[in-house]
């Protein structure tokens, strides 16, 4: 073989190897390596969990959206000494007029635990874009908080959402929440993708850990709404303890405005907020054909008016596109049933949790398969959503570090670190998304992407296209 022939052959082999590497590998597996530490829950005596002082002081105060449009807020809190008043006093920042709303009180037993008095009160007919103060605990120890209502629902209303999932109550959870609070992007509402307290990891699902979690996150959720998604740690299904009603602690403690979107259960519902339409689904409620969730979603998707709310966002706990060797393919049955609708209705982004790590997908779909045609591989699809796994809140179960290799093509970026993200809508065409790992300073972005709206500006926005 002549020298030139050998060189040519080498070049061909090199090209083939390079080509194979490009074709087989997906996006980026981050080279960031986290120091190996055990993820430990904060002890019960931790300052983070301290009970507010005073007789019957309201604790675990939290708010969420209370209607479909963002003009109502559900205020919830717990009292322990006696039921106390279920009234909320509230007033606009620039007004002396104090208003009253009356709520309801509930409590529950779980095995050998009895909850405090859980209050839920919906404040309605609020003005958009207004700061309100509110006071709870009327008659005994009162506590005052505030929130700002969103701008009027409309196509170009800018708005910034925070994204947190699988939070738990470890030292890492506390870091995640602090990073979210300190993020200069200033999230205005948290989209929480499920798995709140992890109380079920304790003997007898020790519901005291539901209370500590409520006190831990109060510093954020008393001042801005968190939009709730139910995860598997909300199930608390424990027949061995005689507890057979799924979601019992969660559904007593966290109310959502499901009736406002014609849902028949609090585990799937929708809200409009500013320029976003948010659909919350339940991975742990029946979702097959003819089930209430299926029928609701089938009716719901055609109702979304992208001229009013251009950004269509879905929250669900179990991810559909995941390349970690944890919960791999657990979301597959739901994906098979609902994914064609997500493509048809041009969902912009789907946020999930469950896997304790971070991952962002390409715009892909896998909807061509029909049992006999063998077409069952995810393919790039400009009409498909981006799928983001953000189950990296920092709970005691620790990080998911083991990944499917090689990185599948549907995976654009993945990293096993704890953190949070923000999704900042600028107008009807553009939104800026960024993910922040806890090891960095508050402003550092470890992954980011400009989203181009799928209805108004459906051009290629993959990070490979942008770079
Ligand atoms: Fe989970």
TrEMBL record:
It comes from the Eukaryota. InterPro entries: Calcineurin-like_PHP, Metallo-depent_PP-like, MPP_PAP, PAPs-like, PAPs_C, PAPs_N, Purple_acid_Pase-like_N. Residues 384-443 form the Purple acid phosphatase C-terminal domain. CDD domains: MPP_PAPs (cd00839). Residues 1-24 form the signal peptide. The keyword Zinc applies. Its cofactor is Zn(2+); Fe cation; Mn(2+); Cu(2+). One of its GO terms (molecular function) is metal ion binding. Its EC number is 3.1.3.2. Keywords: Glycoprotein, Hydrolase, Iron, Metal-binding, Signal, Zinc. It catalyses: a phosphate monoester + H2O = an alcohol + phosphate. Residues 160-358 form the Calcineurin-like phosphoesterase domain. Residues 58-149 form the Purple acid phosphatase N-terminal domain. Homodimer; disulfide-linked. Belongs to the metallophosphoesterase superfamily. Purple acid phosphatase family. This is Purple acid phosphatase. The lineage of its organism: Eukaryota, Viridiplantae, Streptophyta, Embryophyta, Tracheophyta.
